[in-house]
Design brief:
alpha/beta, Glucose Oxidase, domain 1, TIM Barrel, 3 domains, 8-stranded parallel beta barrel
Length: 551
C-alpha cells in the first residue's frame, strides 16, 4: 500500500485510474516536404477531423444555448474548407516545399492580418475566427489532444499544476477527481473541482510520480490522502466513507425547493460562482437562487484572440436567459496576476498581483472595456444581469466605470438596441483600500461583493497561490473578518446589499459569523449550495455573535 499526503481542497471521495495531464508542444517549425502527396493527405485528414469536431460543438451549443450560439461553430466548419483559404495553404506547401503545419500557420496569419486590416468592424472581428480555425487544424495535424485527456474511461487527473487556460480545455466528463504536485486551495484547479463537486488534492509534491499512471488511486478530498493498492482495512474504511457520501448527497436533495431562511426568519441569498455557460447546468441542478459571480475572464482565457462583442453577448445571454429572471452578477474581466493571456501583450511585472490587472486594464485600454460593456448591456435585455467591477480601490475608478456605462447605453440607444437601463452596478471589495473608503464607495453603487481570496491575500500579505504558507494564510484571521464587518456596515448604511463571492462563503464554520455581521448573500460553488442551505435552515440568526472578530 502506498499513501500520499497532500492538502484536500475539494471534499469527497473517489477512485479511478491515474492519468497525467499532457502538455502537447504546439510549436510550428518549417520542415522540408519530401512527400507532397502524404502531406496533402495529412492535411485532408486534419480538415475532416476539424469539421467533425466543430459540428459536434455546434450541436451541443444548439442544445444548450440556442441556434444563434451554434452558428459560430457552423461558420468555423465552413471556413475549414473555404476555397481561398485552402488554396493559400496548398500554394504555400508547393512553393515552399514545406510541411502542412507550416503552410496552415502561414495561411492563417495571412488571412487573419487581411481581415484585421479591413475598415468594417464586423469583418475585422472575423480575424479571431480565422485564428481559431487555424489553431484547430494545427492541433489535429500535430496530435494535440482535444479536451486534454486521451482516455476511454473517466480518470483521476494528475498534474504538476494546471493553468487557468488549461482547466478550460479539459473534457470534464472524463474527470473523477484531481491531484496536483503544486497548487493551493485558491488555485484554479481547486476552484474547478469545487464547481464540479468532485474531490481534489493539491500540494502532493514529488510524492506524485508519472510512474503511477494507470494505477487505481483512492482519493479523499477531505483528508488530502491518496492511496494506491490499499490494504483490506483501508479499502473497507474508504468504501464506508464513499457510502456515507452517497447517503449525504441523497439527503441534500431534500433541500431542493426549500427557502434559504434561518429558524427565526432571517433570509440569506445563496447564489453560485461560475466560469462559463457550461456551468449553468450545475447551478440549476443544485437549485442555486442566482449567480453571484460569473468570471467573464474565462471567455478571454479560452480564446486565441480578443473575444468579439457578439461572442461575449451570446455567452452572457445564454446564462441570463437560462436563469429565467434570477439575478446574474457578471464580473468584468479580471485578467492579470495568475491569469495571463498572451494576446493581451502585457509587460512582464515583478509582482503582477500588485500590477496592471482587472479594472486597471479596462480603464487603461477602453476599447477592450467598451466591447465587453456593450455585450453585457445587450445581454441585460434577456435576464436580470448585474455588472460588477473587480479590484476597485478608489471612488474615481467607480465613477470612471459608470461614465463608460453611460456612454455605452447612449450608443445602444442611438442604434436602437434593447437593454435594461436599470441594470445593477456593483463592485468587488477585495483590497484594504476599498475597506477604508467603503462608506464613500457604497454611495456610488447598488451592491458590494467581497472577494475574500484576494482580501485575505492583501490584508495578510500572503500569496494566495502559495501552498507552503500554511497557517500564515488564514482567511479566519480577525483582521479579515473585521474588514467584512466594516464593509457590511457601510453597505447597509447606504441602503445596498453585500455578499461574499470568495471561497470563504462556503465555510460552514463561519456561517453564524456571517449572519452576525449582516452579510446578505453568499455565492459559492454549485456543489456547496445544498449543504449551505441545510446549515442556514438550522441556524438562529438572533443568537449569532461576533466573537470570531476578537483576536
Amino acid at each position: 500500500m502506498i499513501q500520499l499526503q497532500g492538502k484536500g481542497v475539494s471534499k469527497g471521495v473517489t477512485s479511478g485510474p491515474v492519468y497525467f495531464f499532457r502538455r502537447s508542444d504546439a510549436t510550428v517549425t518549417k520542415v522540408e516536404n519530401a512527400d507532397p502527396a502524404a502531406e496533402k493527405a495529412r492535411l485532408a485528414e486534419a480538415q475532416e477531423k476539424s469539421i467533425e469536431q466543430l459540428n459536434r460543438l455546434a450541436d451541443k451549443c444548439r442544445e444548450e444555448a440556442g441556434e444563434e450560439a451554434a452558428v459560430l461553430f457552423e461558420t468555423h466548419a465552413m471556413f475549414v474548407e473555404d476555397e481561398d483559404y485552402v488554396e493559400c495553404i496548398m500554394d504555400t506547401m508547393e512553393s515552399e516545399g514545406c510541411n502542412a503545419e507550416f503552410a496552415v500557420q502561414t495561411a492563417g496569419e495571412q488571412f487573419a492580418a487581411m481581415f484585421a486590416a479591413m475598415e468594417d468592424a464586423y469583418m475585422r472581428a472575423r480575424a479571431a475566427d480565422i485564428r481559431d480555425v487555424t489553431t484547430r487544424i494545427l492541433n489535429n495535424l500535430m496530435g494535440v489532444i482535444e479536451g486534454g485527456i486521451d482516455s476511454e474511461v473517466p480518470v483521476v487527473l494528475a498534474a504538476d499544476d494546471l493553468a487557468p487556460s488549461e482547466t478550460l480545455q479539459l473534457d470534464k466528463s472524463k474527470i473523477l477527481g484531481f491531484m496536483t504536485q503544486g497548487g493551493s486551495g485558491n488555485s484554479h484547479t481547486a476552484i474547478l473541482a469545487r464547481t464540479m463537486g468532485i474531490p481534489a488534492i493539491c500540494g502532493l509534491g514529488e510524492q506524485l510520480q508519472p510512474a503511477m499512471e494507470g494505477s487505481v488511486a483512492y482519493v479523499d478530498g477531505e483528508t488530502g490522502t491518496v492511496t494506491l493498492d490499499p490494504d483490506e482495512p483501508t479499502l473497507a474504511a474508504f468504501e464506508a466513507k464513499r457510502k456515507k457520501q452517497q447517503e449525504m448527497k441523497l439527503l441534500m436533495q431534500t433541500m431542493k425547493g426549500q427557502q434559504d431562511v434561518t429558524l427565526d426568519g432571517r433570509e440569506m441569498m445563496v447564489y453560485c460562482n461560475i466560469g462559463s455557460p457550461d456551468d449553468l447546468s450545475a447551478v440549476l441542478n443544485n437549485d442555486g437562487r442566482g449567480i453571484g459571480l460569473f468570471r467573464s475572464e474565462f471567455l478571454y482565457l479560452k480564446a486565441s484572440d480578443f473575444p468579439t462583442e457578439d461572442a461575449q453577448f451570446e455567452a452572457y445571454k445564454a446564462v441570463a436567459a437560462g436563469m429565467k429572471g434570477k439575478r446574474v452578477v457578471i464580473r468584468t474581466l479580471d485578467i492579470g496576476a495568475d491569469k495571463q493571456v498572451a494576446y493581451f501583450d502585457m509587460k512582464k511585472e515583478e509582482n503582477p498581483a500588485l500590477g496592471v490587472r482587472a479594472i486597471r486594464i479596462c480603464l487603461n485600454r477602453p476599447e477592450i472595456f467598451r466591447t465587453q460593456l456593450r455585450a453585457l448591456y445587450r445581454a441585460s435585455a434577456f435576464g436580470k444581469v448585474a455588472i460588477m467591477f473587480p479590484m476597485i480601490t478608489s471612488v474615481w475608478e467607480v465613477r470612471e466605470c459608470k461614465r463608460f456605462c453611460a456612454e455605452v447605453m447612449a450608443e445602444l440607444d442611438r442604434e436602437g438596441i434593447a437593454y435594461n437601463p436599470k441594470t445593477e452596478i456593483g463592485i468587488m471589495i477585495e483590497t484594504p483600500a476599498s475597506i477604508f473608503v467603503a462608506d464613500a464607495l457604497a454611495k456610488e453603487v447598488d451592491f458590494f461583493s467581497v472577494g475574500t481570496n484576494d482580501l485575505t491575500q492583501y490584508t495578510l500579505a500572503c500569496d494566495r497561490q502559495a501552498n507552503d504558507l500554511g497557517r500564515f494564510f488564514d482567511p479566519h484571521h480577525p483582521a479579515v473578518l473585521r474588514a467584512l464587518k466594516i464593509a457590511t456596515d457601510a453597505a447597509h448604511a447606504a441602503g445596498i446589499w453585500i455578499g461574499i463571492c470568495g471561497e470563504l462563503g462556503a465555510d460552514l464554520s463561519l456561517l453564524e459569523t456571517f449572519l452576525a455581521i449582516g452579510i446578505d448573500e453568499l455565492s459559492v460553488s454549485p456543489s456547496s449550495v445544498l449543504p449551505l442551505r441545510a446549515a442556514i435552515r438550522k441556524s438562529t440568526a438572533r443568537t449569532c455573535t461576533l466573537e470570531k472578530l476578537d483576536c
